[in-house]
Structures are given as C-alpha cells and as structure tokens.
C-alpha cells in the first residue's frame, strides 16, 4: 500500500454543503491534504465555485454574481478558505452545457488569478476538456495540470501507454480516472510515463484500501475523515 493523498471532493461534502467555505474549512479540520473544487463563470464574468451549470433551473451563465445564493463563493474566497491544503481547481467546460467556453476565457482568468496570489505552487488545475488544461499549460507552464477521464480505454488506435504518453508529452503531471476505470494496468501505464493517478470519487473504506494497494497517488473522496482512517488507520 502506498501513502496516497486524501483529496476532499468539493470539500468535506458529506458533512457540509459541497463547494462552500464551510465544506473547505471542515476538510482542513479532517486533515485532508488537498481540496477539490469546481469553477464556472457568471453572466458578469465572475469566477465562482459551483459544480452544476444551473442553480434552481437557471443557468449560471445567465446570472450575475450578486444574484447568487450566499453559499456560492467566488474562486478567490474559496481559495482563501483552503489555506493549509493544496487545491485541485477543476475548470468545468463541457460543450453540452450552456456555459461551454470555446474561447478558454475561464482558463485564462483562472491562470491570471492564480498568478496574482502568493500560493500558486499549491494549485493543481484539472478538466475533462483537454484543450482547457493545454491552455493553462501554454499560459503558465509552471502550473500543475491533470486530465480528467471517465473510462480507462484509450482513444482508437492508441494503447493505454501511448495515450498516457501523449498526456505527459503535453506537460500534464496527472491523470484523474473514475474509480471504476482504475486497474493495476492503468496505474502501471500511467506511472511508467511519469503521470500520477488521482482517482475520483471514492468513499467506501474497502475500495479506498484496494485502490491504495494498487498504488494510486491520490484518493478524491466526499469523506476525507473516513478515507484517512481507512487507508492509514
């Protein structure tokens, strides 16, 4: 068993409302190594932290920041609440959603915000959209980036090792697979090309231990206190 990082998925999201200041503060109290959060933008171009593209049926991209519920923090406020932990900033950018950002405005603004802060080194930027993390890399090659994937199967014509090599060649340092996609072969192939394996979203103690036994590098979980006890005793 390795010593994987414990990453609080949207904060301590089983104990507090997800992606809120309270969830991030409780995650720190539970000794999470890292907090994960989701970034979108509002109609008035404010970076905010919220997983879904809608609130109560209204698209976030059509809402002004000052009209959002009080529990929705700006990205800057959320990062301040995560002091003492590293932060996995997931940039939401899905072409099926109303706020799809073809021009990578959000990625550019996230990089600008992080470069204005003194805690730049504790950030890891991830996305399901590969061009988003490639944009981050082009704007600031010193920022750590990871590619989120659901399935373990590589694109047609590539082996798993070749797929991971292409991700590493773009400068990314991690692959973030869904827990059901993780196999010993996947971990071995990723590690062979220098990629960390950060798995989402794992809550059951037996599964947390099994994945740690496979040698994954981080466990992204809604229950960081349970995860730490399961893996480290």
3D structure, described in words:
The protein has 233 residues and is an alpha/beta fold. Helices cover 32% and strands 21% of the residues. Strand 6, helix 3 (105-115) and strand 7 form a beta-alpha-beta unit. Helix 7 packs across helix 8. It is globular, with a radius of gyration of 17 Å.
Roughly what fraction of the amino acids lie in strands?
Answer: 15-25%
Structural class determined from secondary elements: alpha/beta
Contiguous uncertain segments of 5+ residues:
none
Instruction: Characterize the main sheet.
Output: 8 strands, parallel, barrel
Order of adjacent strands in the largest pleated sheet: 1-2-6-7-8-9-10-11
Number of helices in the DSSP assignment: 8
Work out the helicity level.
25-40%
Mean pLDDT: 97
**Beta strand count:** 11
- Tell me, briefly, the overall form: globular
End-to-end separation: 12 Å
Helix and strand element order: EHEEEEHEHEHEHEHEHEH
Radius of gyration: 17 Å
């Amino acid at each position: 068993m390795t010593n994987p990082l414990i990453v609080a998925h949207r904060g301590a999201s089983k104990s507090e409302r997800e992606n809120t200041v309270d969830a991030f503060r409780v995650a720190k109290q539970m000794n999470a190594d890292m907090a994960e959060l989701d970034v979108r933008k509002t109609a008035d171009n404010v970076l905010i932290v919220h997983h879904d593209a809608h609130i109560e049926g209204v698209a976030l991209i059509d809402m002004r920041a000052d009209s959002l519920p009080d529990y929705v923090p700006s990205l800057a406020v959320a990062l301040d609440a995560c002091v003492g932990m590293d932060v996995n900033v997931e940039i939401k950018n899905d072409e099926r959603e109303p706020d799809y950002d073809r021009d990578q405005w959000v990625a550019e603004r996230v990089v600008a915000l992080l470069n204005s802060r003194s805690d730049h080194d504790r950030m890891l930027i991830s996305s399901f959209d590969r061009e988003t993390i490639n944009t981050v890399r082009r704007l600031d090659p010193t920022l750590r980036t990871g590619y989120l994937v659901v399935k373990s199967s590589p694109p047609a014509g590539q082996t798993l090792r070749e797929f991971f090599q292409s991700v590493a060649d773009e400068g990314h340092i991690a692959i973030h697979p869904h827990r059901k996609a993780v196999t010993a072969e996947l971990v071995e192939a990723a590690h062979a090309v220098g990629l960390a394996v950060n798995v989402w979203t794992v809550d059951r103690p037996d599964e947390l231990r099994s994945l740690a036994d496979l040698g994954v590098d981080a466990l992204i979980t809604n229950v960081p206190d349970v995860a730490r006890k399961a893996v480290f005793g």
